[in-house]
């Protein structure tokens, strides 16, 4: 499940939050309902950890930081959507998650200053997303691409937090993850009558495949890691052939397809860093 697939879940959560009889107490924990982003965040981070070829204390701290940062976004977005009044629960849990993420981020930065570049990218993406939510443009393709790119920063974050170096290979892995997961933006839109055309998806996957090939040719990606992108091309091809089923099947089946594809991608990319060169 992706951000696009989770919009309906978030909207239901919003409506429940606006109902006084069902409003949870401020001290009850908040967790994002966007399950697809959990998969994206974890897979991206694990590919980065695989590229680093080790797992240290700073790797664990980076994972906690990334998770808390993602959770901080949920109450913030809900508060922006319901900006006519302040919601204590949104403010409290937004502050808690932000505090955890910010504290770890500062600690890691003091040890690895180059992380500042990743932080600036994530902050810029969060600010733009907040503006998009304010103007109700969060479902646009441009904003979703930006959001996916921000989440996939987990890959270079894992690498830099573990090794202390921001390399071209780390940037290449970030781009690979971003291009892989952004495919879902175009496949999910096939299920909606207004965006059911295959043309945008075909154009995107052709461009993305060209970029991945270019990254491999430039030495920013290992050959096997680049081959991992082929899983999303196979998925898109299968969806195009089985389009009638895909557009009518339950959303749970779509989420399962996306998750299984992501796990195959993770396995291939992880293996590429441990194969003899």
Write the layout of secondary structure elements.
Layout: H1 3-18, H2 35-52, H3 57-81, H4 88-111, H5 116-134, H6 141-151, H7 154-163, H8 168-188, H9 199-217, H10 223-227, H11 230-241, H12 243-248, H13 251-272
Helix pairs in contact: 2-3, 2-7, 2-8, 2-13, 3-4, 3-5, 3-7, 5-6, 6-8, 7-8, 8-9
How would you explain this protein's 3D organization?
It contains 13 helices and no strands. The longest helix is centred in the first third of the chain and has 25 residues. The protein starts with a helix and ends in a 5-residue tail after the last helix. It is globular. 75% of the residues lie in helices and 0% in strands. α2 runs parallel beside α7, α3 runs parallel beside α5 and α5 runs antiparallel to α6. The protein is mostly helical.
Structural class: mainly alpha
What is the general shape? Answer: globular
Low-confidence runs (pLDDT<50, min 5 residues)? Answer: 1-21
Radius of gyration: 19 Å
Q: How far is the N terminus from the C terminus?
A: 35 Å
What does the average pLDDT come to? 87
User: Mind summarizing the main beta sheet?
Assistant: none
Number of strands: 0
Report the β-strand fraction as a percent range. Answer: under 5%
Give the helices and strands as they follow along the chain: HHHHHHHHHHHHH
Number of helices: 13
Helix content: over 70%
List keywords for this structure.
disordered N terminus, 277 residues, 0% strand, mainly alpha, globular, 75% helix
In short, what is this structure?
With 277 residues, this protein is an all-alpha fold. Helices cover 75% and strands 0% of the residues.
């Amino acid at each position: 499940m992706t951000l696009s697939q989770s919009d309906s879940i978030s909207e239901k959560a919003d409506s429940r939050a606006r109902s006084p009889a069902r409003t949870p107490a401020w001290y009850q924990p908040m967790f994002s309902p966007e399950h697809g982003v959990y998969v994206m965040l974890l897979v991206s981070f694990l590919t980065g950890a695989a590229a680093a070829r080790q797992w240290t204390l700073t790797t664990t701290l980076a994972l906690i930081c990334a998770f808390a940062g993602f959770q901080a976004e949920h109450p913030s977005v809900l508060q922006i959507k319901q900006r006519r009044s302040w919601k204590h629960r949104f403010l409290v849990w937004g502050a808690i998650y932000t505090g955890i993420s910010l504290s770890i981020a500062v600690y890691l930065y003091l040890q690895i200053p180059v992380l500042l570049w990743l932080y600036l990218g994530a902050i810029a993406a969060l600010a733009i997303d907040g503006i998009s939510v304010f103007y109700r443009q969060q479902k646009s393709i441009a904003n979703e691409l930006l959001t996916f790119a921000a989440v996939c920063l987990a890959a270079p974050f894992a690498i830099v937090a573990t090794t202390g170096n921001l390399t071209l290979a780390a940037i290449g892995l970030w781009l690979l993850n971003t291009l892989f997961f952004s495919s879902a933006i175009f496949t999910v839109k096939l299920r909606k009558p207004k965006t059911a055309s295959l043309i945008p998806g075909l154009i995107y996957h052709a461009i993305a495949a060209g970029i991945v090939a270019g990254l491999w040719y430039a030495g920013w990606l290992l050959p096997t890691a680049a081959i991992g992108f082929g899983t999303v091309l196979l998925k898109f091809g299968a969806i195009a052939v089985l389009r009638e089923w895909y557009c009518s099947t339950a959303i749970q089946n779509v989420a399962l397809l996306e998750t299984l594809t992501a796990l195959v991608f993770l396995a291939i990319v992880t293996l590429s860093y441990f194969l003899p060169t």
